User: Fold this.
Amino acid sequence: MANLKEIRTRISSVEKTKQVTAAMKMVSAAKLKKAQDAIVQIRPYADKLQEILGNLSGSLSDSEDNIYGAERKADKVLLVAITSNKGLCGAFNSNVLKRVNELSRDVYSKQKAEGNFKVLAIGKQGFKDISKVHQVIVHHNELFDDMNFENTSSIASSIMEEYVAGKYDRVELVYNRFKNAGVQILTNEQFLPIVTNDSDADTAQSDYIFEPGKEAIIGELIPKSLKTQFFGAMLDSVASEHGARMTSMHKATDNASDLIQEMKLHYNQARQAAITNEILEIVSGANALSQ
Amino acid sequence: MLLEIVTPEKKMFSGEVDLIQLPGISGSFEILKNHAPIISTLDRGVIKIKTSDGQEVLFEVDGGVVECKKNIVTVLAD
Assistant:
């Protein structure tokens, strides 16, 4: 059995670790709250935009002339992998990596073999691992320093430009969708070409006046909705990151508590044994004297 | 007439208004009560609002879209 002093130092070191993980959990909880608020904020904007677009495309005859919507043969693929800059958040980042690998193996194996499977990494953690296996064209780790609509839009528009120029035929986003603090859903969704959902039942319910014209409005709204989609994915990922970190730090704190309890038990047993030994020595010493 | 101005990052304004002046892409225009349904893109400029209690409020926008339908006006600003 380890001696008393050893156990004591171990207990104090685990206690310090516990303090750190508990503090990190608190920080993540606060940041999660903020990130969640941001998601709630963008929702009315995104919903309204979708609604207007739905109204428009419903009253417009087939909008196949739209440059972002045309389905092309997916020869050149770009994945946008959204991870985080910081670690210590459980399987958050490795899940994204896993999904990227899966996609490259199962869905885009042909493109991968031809060298037309590229990844745009957002977040240091993902970049580190993905760049070992895949071709990363560019990374945007700095985005998290100052994440706002403008910065994410500029990335989204550069992707859109490259898509229009024919550099890629298909762009997909891979990220953790936020469900609640404990649950993140790993998602890959098609970014380009646009997936049109014709589920809107109440199309053309009102006769709108269009200023300056339907085509012009659609031409302006579609990039906007793409940027919003991209920004939404980023916000989801950030909220998921904090949620994941909060959960994993909570677990770490619990583990530390268990460990401390176990070690305290050992410590007290060792202390008791030492006292018993001492008493035994004194008693036998006294007995020897009196004889 | 109900007006909402939303940006991707937050809701800028929400409330009852009498008059909205908007920088439309093909010229500035106003929306009053019972305006016909309209969707228009906006240019960089200033949105001027007269609220129901007579106050004037100004917002600067870089562009956006406005939708007006059944006395509900939504401005998606950038």
Remarks:
- DSSP finds no helices and eight strands in chain B.
- Chain B has a mean pLDDT of 90.
- The longest strand of chain B covers residues 11-24.
